[in-house]
């Protein structure tokens, strides 16, 4: 359940967002974000510097980046069937983005319905979220 919160942060924070401070998150959530980050870095062979670049809006179109993003989402609020668990998103959404985050997430998810595979869809969704509201974006 905490994983879902973390990805929602990703999603909500991601919601195309600049840089949302992690100061709003509890220590437990920060620990979970680090664990998820570390797991997805290993699974995807992602370079740490590329993760930092995403915070600034750089989304290189490469397989490693897509695997990393997919790992974050599928470890949290994206179900095995490839849909969003909106109940979990709404439950876990940080107060700062509670009103706009879930809608941006759903809109960007729906916009990319025709993507060839889940990795491409989640990559494009995350990029859309950043482009929609970069002020609340966070990636870890």
Automatic annotation (TrEMBL):
<keyword id="KW-0732">Signal</keyword>
<dbReference type="Pfam" id="PF01395">
    <property type="entry name" value="PBP_GOBP"/>
</dbReference>
<protein>
    <submittedName>
        <fullName>Uncharacterized protein</fullName>
    </submittedName>
</protein>
<feature type="signal peptide">
    <location>
        <begin position="1"/>
        <end position="18"/>
    </location>
</feature>
<dbReference type="InterPro" id="IPR006170">
    <property type="entry name" value="PBP/GOBP"/>
</dbReference>
<dbReference type="GO" id="GO:0005549">
    <property type="term" value="F:odorant binding"/>
</dbReference>
<dbReference type="InterPro" id="IPR036728">
    <property type="entry name" value="PBP_GOBP_sf"/>
</dbReference>
